[in-house]
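Section 5: illustrative case.
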């Protein structure tokens, strides 16, 4: 047995957690599949367009639905339903070496008291989902933003000033 995947997540962003390093371990397959199904059910209850045949896909269902649909749906869901899903993601944090520390912490009740920045918690949620999906959500979102920017640029009219008069414009007064 190869074991579950792990990821090492260094914190590079400015802030009090900068230099800290987290280790994440993916959930067992049954737990992960159930997590993704519960998340998709929550998305459906929140009004997201969740195809009926997607539940059996587990993590791949998130990819099929699209990141935008997932984020929008979670944003509309009641907090008391979202929080247990987020807490379960943080259960995948298996160690944390704070900046400047000699030894890593391995108990979540200790680790959560060591994290100083809310942005670190959000990054950990994203990194755990990425670990289960097998690709980086941040990279995928960046690719979508780049694609959208290129599409908008291609659709935008030329903004350079022209001395030629457009056939639709009126002559100068």
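Designed sequence:
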């Amino acid at each position: 047995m190869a074991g579950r995947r792990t990821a090492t997540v260094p914190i590079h962003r400015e802030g009090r957690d900068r230099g800290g390093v987290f280790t994440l371990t993916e959930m067992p397959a049954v737990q992960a599949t159930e997590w993704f199904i519960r998340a998709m059910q929550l998305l459906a209850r929140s009004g997201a367009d969740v195809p009926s045949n997607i539940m059996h896909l587990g993590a791949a269902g998130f990819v099929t639905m699209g990141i935008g649909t997932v984020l929008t749906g979670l944003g509309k869901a009641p907090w008391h339903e979202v929080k247990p899903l987020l807490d379960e993601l943080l259960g995948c944090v298996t160690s944390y070496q704070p900046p400047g520390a000699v030894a890593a912490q391995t108990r979540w009740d200790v680790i959560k008291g060591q994290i100083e920045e809310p942005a670190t918690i959000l990054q950990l949620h994203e990194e755990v989902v990425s670990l289960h999906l097998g690709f980086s959500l941040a990279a995928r979102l960046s690719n979508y933003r780049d694609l959208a920017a290129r599409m908008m640029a291609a659709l935008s009219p030329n903004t350079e000033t022209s001395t030629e008069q457009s056939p639709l414009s009126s002559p100068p007064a």
